[in-house]
Specification:
D-amino Acid Aminotransferase, Chain A, domain 1, 9-stranded mixed sheet, 15 strands, globular, binds 4'-deoxy-4'-aminopyridoxal-5'-phosphate
């Protein structure tokens, strides 16, 4: 693949891109990231992702080396150099490679590691899963306690995804103290009548950028939104369920831990929200 990636100021063929073996993200998972989708060659909700990046940095005392314009320039350059029409841009920012391994943070003057790369996803907006819906299993949420920070520590979500695959399903919803937190890489919702229920923001879940937009559109469309925890049993008795993320947008869930919802077919609320989300976000894309 002749993809061009960005590493610490340079645009390079992916085979030539290198980071240090002493990088703190490699040694300790000491890094944060963002994923922004591209539709029609334009960035979806770029400002939301950059705002969350800044928040993740603040929470971890990590210096954000670039301002909005700096990040925007690199994103646009990669979209152009890789001719991305539909796809994703990953932004990885770590506390750098200070040399000797040490639990204490290195001096703030240590240069961070900045990596951005693209993943082309033709058909992203018109995905098969949007039409068929996905099937999820329930698993214990065994992640750390600061899930509101978008760190590169993705091992448990990755294990959860594999548990789902082994069970012949698509994803897992994580459960803590009897209540659903979120999906392995998405926020989780159920629908009963005209009411959408999703867990409220706290350090228990990632503050999804897609979540914020979808809830705004839902309220504008006169749907009721209730932000509170729900159980797997309540979800299994719901009319519909769905997930949101920057790469899945709004994707219906048709089975939860072996129980089919809506006769195993995607429901109208998820379909409508997906349509509104894609329409509005395409209009606002930059
Ligand atoms: N929760 C988790 C755990 C995630 O990894 C993601 C995707 N990064 C989300 C929620 C959805 O966030 P967003 O809408 O910003 O992609």
């Amino acid at each position: 693949m002749n993809r061009t990636v960005y590493v610490n100021g340079d645009y390079l063929p992916e085979e030539e891109a290198k980071v240090s073996i002493f990088d703190r993200a490699f040694l300790m998972g000491d890094g944060v990231y963002e994923v922004t989708s591209v539709l029609g060659g334009k960035l979806i909700d770029f400002d939301g992702h950059i705002a969350r990046l800044q928040r993740s940095c603040n929470e971890l005392d990590l210096t954000n080396p670039l301002d909005r314009e700096g990040w925007l320039h690199i994103h646009r350059e990669l979209v152009e150099r890789n001719a991305i029409d539909e796809g994703l841009i990953y932004l990885q920012l770590t506390r750098g490679a200070p040399g000797d391994r040490d639990f204490a943070f290195p001096p703030a003057s240590t240069p961070p590691t900045v990596v951005l790369f693209t993943q082309a996803k033709p058909g992203l907006a018109d995905s098969a899963q949007a039409k068929t819906g996905i099937r999820v299993i329930a698993i214990d949420d065994l992640r750390w306690g600061r899930r509101d920070i978008k760190t590169t520590q993705l091992l448990y979500p990755s294990m959860g995804k594999m548990m789902a695959v082994k069970a012949g399903c698509d994803d897992a919803w994580m459960v803590e103290d009897g209540f659903v937190t979120e999906g392995t890489s998405n926020n989780a919702y159920i629908v009963k009548g005209n009411r959408i229920v999703t867990r409220q923001l706290s350090s228990d879940i990632l503050h999804g950028i897609t979540r914020a937009a979808v809830l705004r559109f839902a309220r504008e469309a006169q749907m009721e939104v209730e932000e509170r925890p729900f159980t797997i049993a309540e979800a299994q008795a719901a009319d519909e369920a769905f997930i949101t993320s920057a790469s899945a947008f709004v994707t219906p869930v048709v089975e939860i831990d072996g129980t089919a919802l809506g006769g195993g077919k995607p429901g109208p609320v998820a379909a409508r929200l997906r349509e509104i989300y894609l329409d509005e976000m395409r209009k606002a894309a930059i």
